[in-house]
Task: structure prediction
Amino acid sequence: MKVLKFGGTSVGSVENMANVKSIIDNGEKKIVVLSAMSGTTNSLVAIAKAIENKDKTDALHAVNVLLDTYIPVLKTLLTDAALHTEATNYVNSRFDVLKAATSSTYTQVLENEILAQGELLSTFMFNCYLRQEGIASTLLPALDFMKTDAVKEPNFDAIAKDLSDILNTSEQADIYITQGFICLDVNGEVSNLQRGGSDYTATIIGAAIKAEEVQIWTDIDGMHNNDPRHVEGTKPISNLSFDEAAELAYFGAKILHPQTVLPVKKDGIPVRLKNTMDPEALGTSITHHHTETGIKAIAAKDTITAIKIKSGRMLQAHGFLKKVFEIFETYETSIDMITTSEVAVSLTIDDDSRLQEIVSDLETFASIEVDKNQSIVCLVGHAIVNDAGTHKLFQILRDVKIRMISYGGSNNNISLLVDTSNKIKTLQKLNSYLFDFATV
Ligand code: ASP
Ligand code: MG
Result:
């Protein structure tokens, strides 16, 4: 069986839902994972924020504004009177939950329940639509099987068991529809897999059922070789290995949730990125195969903080790095990039919520410099450290000040740290040195 995930834009309008229907209606049995309609999760985040800020009127107003966007969709999507009524009643019941939340006291659990409504709405409506179109489809509620453990990672064993039990006992269908993003945490409370988590849901399910393939359908024709928001003439990459895709997703390629490929890598289940608006386009296929060497793609990740740790005691001393790492471990902060010299270490973190405590602990034995507003520019490809073409990237040193370079840490990633004000220039210049053969 295949798992197909459709993102917010793909279910964001009646017209797009009709496109999704024609893509999935091919007689093959499949599981379809849906995001919330585009814009919904952002609105739900704003509603939760208003409740947290005790702006009850704002929160209620935002709930009503959101409800108003659903009414015309229901009307156009569901022309069958009975299904229209069924879906409208359901939508109203979800909005009743949201309205009630606006008079409740804010808690993280309340926020998670609010955020979960988007996927519950989109899947229910879409399932009614498929039934209206004569397709044998049924809902698989994600909260019946998608569970995370004490460290907020998917509980793969429980998911595989529960999902297989549900598939064996539920009404037989051609198409099983389920919610992306939402899950139950270790305490049995509603939670989620972080923003963009529907991609992750799809590969977790793919791993659980040992799917033939996982397809992620979005509104762009695959992963591009540079950031299309900042660089002109970027191109979709036809093949990536799991490792290359993982690095790109983690280091900023917005098309995929950072953890997406991890669940399916072990079993080598292929992941294909496809475009709902242009189903014939090749897209990107992610497998174990390495097709060519050399730099394939560039991505950038913002809001990075660099920390320089300088100490005379580092000179020829062993155990220094252990001491440094222990501090980051204590404050549960993961390190992305690291470079060292004989007297100093520079490293970067993404989550700076414990920065003050980290810095004050480090200051007990070293002098510290902190640079905020940094971006990691990540270059990915197979065996790039061995590829002669890689030298071209170093021309960038003429154009912008590079704060750190991480080279040789892995065979498929080279990372540069630049001030965020230089990020776009770095992406554009690297594009011309590495991919725009006409100008090199
Ligand atoms: N609806 C969620 C979000 O907007 C999850 C997803 O779309 O993947 O982040
Ligand atoms: Mg997404």
Remarks:
- The radius of gyration is 24 Å.
